[in-house]
Amino acid sequence: MVATIVVGLAIAGPVRTPDGVAMFTMGGHGAKLIFFHVPCAWLASLAYIVGAIYAVRVLLSGGKSPEVQADLDIKACTAMELGLVFAFLATVTGSIFSHNEWLTFWNWREPRMVSIFVILLIFAAYLVLRQAVDNPTRRARLAAAYALVSVVPGMFLIWVLPRMVATLHGDANQAVMGNNLGGMYRPVLRYLALPAFLGLFGWMFQLGVRAKRLAARHAAE
Amino acid sequence: MGLLAGAFAVLRKELQTELRDRAALNATLLFSVAGLAIVAYGVGPAVLPAVVQSALLWVVLFFAAFSGLAHVFTHEEEAGTSSLLRLTADAHAVYLGKLLFNLLLTVLIALITVPAGLVAVSASPDRPWVFAAVALSGVLALATSATVVAAIIARAQGRGALFGAVGLPLLLPVLLIAVDATKNTLEPEMIPGLAMREIVGLCAFAVMVIAASWLVFPAVWEE
Fold it and tell me: Which ipTM did the prediction report?
């Protein structure tokens, strides 16, 4: 019930927000894409963090029963799958936004575009790696190890690279929380879109975990 | 056996086996020469801007090094010797020894590819030592990332294609910085401060990857 209201507000909020926004040159509804684009990028990062935390727990659960490890592995994998979905959505919406605003779909000198693309590749590589290992225990460990090693380039891309080169997203820190947005955009993004998308993530996450547990039980029977 | 002694023992074993059966080594070296020839042929007499020269150099170096770096772990699985190594050596000693071997191999590949590559794209760095330092730090970052990925994919199926698919995403940030840094050193007016910062960036990346690999390697290596 609460979730429905929040999601409803998250959809209604952007629609009721005035068109255009101070920092962008484009008018009309185009600028409203950020209500979708920014939360998708947040969720992609969140999925990465959640996946990495479960990966650590998979590696630490070595001494425990295989069931515990398998369940943690299911959670890590679900987070990474959601990460792939949201990184893909963030990439596509960002590209469309970029075309509206800067008249180019892609620019390899823009660090945020490069980083979302590389993170997209890392999510995909994680899932490809999983498909290439049959033994479930080994799969859990190898995937977790890969997820953790990939944190290094991930951190590099998110925190180091945007500071080494100029970016279109304005100051890297501010752009992350939407501080540089004017008018109603910031409150709508922060207080409506953020909780709504967090709720969406939680809902999708537990659905994915439950589906995988059922599949695992089915395979075992 | 202490950690370092173990690591050097593993390194010596790798060197001995590779030099005894030189097939993999020769294939890797031939691959880098062939890759260079293709670039040189494609470029022809054209005068390229520094950014294209640098990008071509790194693409050749990446693929040449990448073709050989997985072997250090895959050959153990193919020959069925990994269990024996697991029994006789500590996991961290194995990691260090194999990392050292891959570092040596990548430096060897770079010693062939980079000077010849400079000729192929007709580039001449103003300050060769700065250029060499950039290339070396890039090679360091490349070899450290490739080694841990090799350890992971050696235990999976379909290793050849998997190594590229799983390894390249980790290496894209390295490529990005290395190409930028090399472009700077190939430009008529090099900015020394920028080169320094990028060398530090690449070395820091290598150190972080070694630290992360050190932590996860036992989980990858042990049964």
Answer: 0.90
